[in-house]
Amino acid sequence: MADYAIVETGGKQYRAQKGDKLLVERVPEDEGAKVNLRAVMFRGDKDVVLDADSLEKVKVEAVVAEHVKGPKVRVFKHKPKKGYRRTRGHRQSLTRLEVTDVKMLARKPAAAKQEEPKAEAKAEPKAEAKAETKAPAKPKAPARKPAAKKPAAKKPAAKKPAAKKKPAAKKPSSSARKPSTRKSTS
């Protein structure tokens, strides 16, 4: 049985074996570039590796074969009896990877070096040399806690001029009603 690894890229996991072709979400590298994939699990001839420290020793290399687009997905929304209809389409950007190597290394790979600007690199050794010639730095005192904040004083509200009161509308009383037009039969 050949070695294989479960790798994670683009939030999804794939089974990678030497010689396999994987269709994954878009990878920013150009075609023909080498890509190292992050292993989540490794299965060798005799052992299975799952812990994070040992997984750093697993090397999964792939080459970017091509960038492609996935199938078109149509999204149609509508609300019945309302005249609302929307059609949208989507095509996912994908990358085809060819797995070139899956193996367990004897030790951890060296960390990638970050390039620093040369001007800063030259300026730092001089500053360090001057600092060493001076007296050693004193240990810093523990940081003080910030003072408790007091609530802000409330400002008195601006006085508004009193509104003029209108006299209430008079309702007609029951005695002031018009006499009924009915004739009494007594």
- The number of helical elements comes to 2
> Percentage of helical residues?
10-25%
- What is the total tally of β strands? 9
How would you sum up the major sheet?
A: 7 strands, antiparallel
Strand content: 35-45%
Q: Return the string of H and E elements.
A: EEEEEHEEEEH
The coarse overall form would be elongated
**Euclidean distance between termini CA atoms:** 120 Å
Low-pLDDT segments, ≥5 res: none
The average pLDDT is 82
Rg is 40 Å
Q: Which structural class do the helices and strands define?
A: mainly beta
Structural account:
This protein is mainly beta. Helices cover 11% and strands 36% of the residues.
List strands and helices in order, with pairings.
Layout: E1 4-9, E2 12-17, E3 21-25, E4 34-43, E5 48-49, H1 52-55, E6 58-69, E7 73-79, E8 84-90, E9 93-104, H2 118-133
Antiparallel strand pairs: 1-2, 1-4, 3-9, 4-5, 4-6, 6-9, 7-8
Précis, in short:
With 186 residues, the protein is mainly β. It has helices spanning 52-55, 118-133, and strands at residues 4-9, 12-17, 21-25, 34-43, 48-49, 58-69, 73-79, 84-90, 93-104.
What are its keywords?
mainly beta; two-stranded antiparallel ribbon; 9 strands; 2 helices; 186 residues
